[in-house]
Amino acid sequence: MTAGGDGLDDRVPFLARLEGGERQALLALGTPMTYAPRQALLREHEPSAHVLLLLTGWTKVTAAAPNGYEALLALRGPGDIVGEFAALTSKPRSAHVTALEEVRAVAVEPARFTEFLRSAPQVSMTLLALVSDRTRAADRRRLEFASMTVRERFASLLLELARGFGQRTADGVELQVPLSKQELAGSVGASREMVQRLLKELRDRDAVVTGRRALVVRRPDVLRRIAGGGP
């Protein structure tokens, strides 16, 4: 998905938007960190202790509803920034960020981060543009999903993941971000059981192949027909 006008694609990460000198200066402010798969980087409702600049590895951003349902809000990977809202507003964190694989990052204290933004207005504008691009993309996705059935939303999600996080193999396009059935369900507002039924349907139609932690899209044309409301 691309942002409207002259904006960058909302998937273009924060560090990639900075000039080389700006990027190095910001990274020099922090401390290198390493997180194991499934380890929490940030916890929802906790006060801000640092901003994280991701160098390698993918994370999931989730939030819990009062009934315990966990919604997948976004995926963040190399070059992305997480935890910036809590640092800038001095409010508790609004989401949970968890490593999907080993993640290397640089942690910057909130005071150092905000002082850097004051001294580098161009970086501040870059961060504002990123937030704007992400907000527009999220609004567009909510609008699209509101008119879709769960089946259509799930097919659309798999196409989006294949485009943004897929690698072509001999069998098709393999998703490079390891998501569980529960995490896929949280992204489309469905139950885990519903996702299992939808995956079985797609396997029966040779549209996808699933393994223990892998998912390969073999027939994107089938997913496109489903996402468009087709049979």
TrEMBL record:
Keyword Protein biosynthesis in record: no
GO cellular component, one term: cytosol
Domain HTH crp-type: 148-221
Domain Cyclic nucleotide-binding intervals: 14-117
Keyword Transcription regulation belongs to the record: yes
Gene3D superfamilies listed in its UniProt record: Jelly Rolls, Winged helix-like DNA-binding domain superfamily/Winged helix DNA-binding domain
Keywords carried by this UniProt record: DNA-binding, Transcription, Transcription regulation
Matching InterPro entries: cNMP-bd_dom, cNMP-bd_dom_sf, Env_Response_Regulators, HTH_CRP, RmlC-like_jellyroll, WH-like_DNA-bd_sf, WH_DNA-bd_sf
Name the record gives this protein: Crp/Fnr family transcriptional regulator
Organism taxonomic ancestry: Bacteria, Bacillati, Actinomycetota, Actinomycetes, Kitasatosporales
